[in-house]
Amino acid sequence: TVAPVATVVGELTSSAGTTTVSDAELNHLTALNDGAIVLQSLAGNIEVPNVISSGSGAVLLSSAAALTLTGDLDSGSGSVSMLAEDAITLGLGASISSSTSGSVLIESANGAFTMSGNASITAVNAVLGIHADDDLTLGVTTADAVSLISNDGGIRRAATVGTTIAANRLRIDAAGSIGTLERAFTTSVDLMSMTGSSVHLWSIGSTTIGTVGLTFDRLLSDLSTETVEDPAQSGVVSTSGGLIDIRTIAGDLTLTATAGVISADAAGNVLLTIDGDFDAGADVTSISGTLTLNI
Question: pLDDT by residue (tens digit) across 96-139?
Fold first, then answer.
């Protein structure tokens, strides 16, 4: 745990007495002059309030168990990797910000990724990858391109959040549902592709369904990198007979030729509600479900 630390020491005087010397309390990890920050645990959790890298230094937080950010992580223009064996949590008011044009990569090998309703990620020039074994619950998230993967869970919108993802490109691959009937997943995205057991999506403004694949750099303990690839994925697809419900708000919906297919498995229904124009360059299909188009 990174926690407030202040020191008070007694300094000997020339008359053999002492005088008290106090150093101001510190409550963060800071690197100056383009220095990097590496914090690793080999056997326990990491909880950190504030991480500040002033310059181009990279930030690596790596936990052998859970990882919790309770304050602000500002990487300057450096890349970021947050890696944990168990759950990763961004607490109340926590934020990640970076001006890097590289990677911001968050990976939970065996747990969930959870952002509180007022937590945020802002990396407008970066490729952002969030990979977890269980559910991903997102607050306000902004990046150039975003890839979300849940191996055994779904993709959720945190309570009180309006637009969840703002990006040029978005790729989602989930074993469970993307959004829910009660709380749709909300986006403002130019180009997207997603696969889940069901899809409940509201697009703020126009969007295009097509092919998205992204590549990231994962930081290692010596600050070298290895490549992580989320391969090209096309269309919007539901599995296990799940519903596909896509709505645009004040925007068009475009399906790119061939790659922009919308496909519901088995008896899954497809409901498209478009507050604009519909350019169907690819098929909209369900094996035995109902197709409904509202314009």
Answer: 999 999 999 999 999 999 999 999 999 999 999 999 999 999 99
Q: How far apart are CA 97 and CA 86, in angstroms?
A: 23
Residue that is written with structure tokens 């496909």 in the block: 263
Contact predicate 88/106, CB 8 Å = yes
Tell me the C-alpha distance between 133 and 235, whole Å.
23
Measured CA to CA, the distance from residue 56 to residue 79 in angstroms comes to 8
> What's the CA gap between 244 and 180, in Å, rounded?
11
Cβ neighbours, 10 Å, residue 193: 26
pLDDT single digits (tens) 170-193: 999 999 999 999 999 999 999 999
Please tell me the distance from the alpha carbon of residue 65 to that of residue 110, in angstroms, as a whole number.
9
Would you say residue 8 has pLDDT above 50? no
Separation of alpha carbons 150 and 40, rounded Å: 24
- Spacing of C-alpha 51 from chain mean position: 18
Task: Return the bridge partners of 185, or none.
Answer: 201
Give helix then strand counts, H and E, for the chain.
Answer: 0, 32
The C-alpha atoms of residue 263 and residue 79 are separated, in whole angstroms, by 36
The residue type of 102 is: G
Distance CA 45, CA 125 (A): 30
Residue reference for tokens 């074994």: 133
Tens digits of residue pLDDT in 151-164: 999 999 998 778 89
Residue 66 corresponds to which amino acid? A
